[in-house]
Structures are given as C-alpha cells and as structure tokens.
Write a structure and sequence with these properties.
The protein is mainly α. The chain is 79% helix and 0% strand.
Length: 62
C-alpha cells in the first residue's frame, strides 16, 4: 500500500472520529492505525540509529 494514501486515510479517519461523526472504529481500522504508527516509530528508530552510527564512525575515524 502506498504510504501517502495510507497517511491521508488515517488523517481523514482520525478527524472523523474526533468530530464524533462516527459511532466507533472497527477493529480492522484500529489495527491498521496501530500498525501504521508502529511502522512509523520503527522507521524513526532506524533513521536515528543510522545517523548516530554514521556520526560515531566519523568521530572514531572510521
């Protein structure tokens, strides 16, 4: 699935839930939102770790 499409869907769905236009969230939607947040967090951790490893390598002369 395209990440931009998923992001737009999550934002739209979140806004609907906040505006109380929906009575609730289905378990599938909740799982997709939670999964997307976990993937985003994982990518952030990988990016930070890669950047730190790069900086440490430069400091150590590697």
């Amino acid at each position: 699935m395209d990440i931009q499409t998923l992001t737009v869907w999550i934002r739209g769905r979140y806004q609907m839930l906040r505006a109380a236009q929906d009575k609730g969230v289905t378990s599938t939607e909740l799982a997709v939102i939670a999964g997307a947040l976990l993937v985003g967090a994982g990518l952030l951790v990988v990016a930070i770790r890669t950047k730190l490893t790069e900086k440490i390598g430069i400091i150590n002369g590697g």
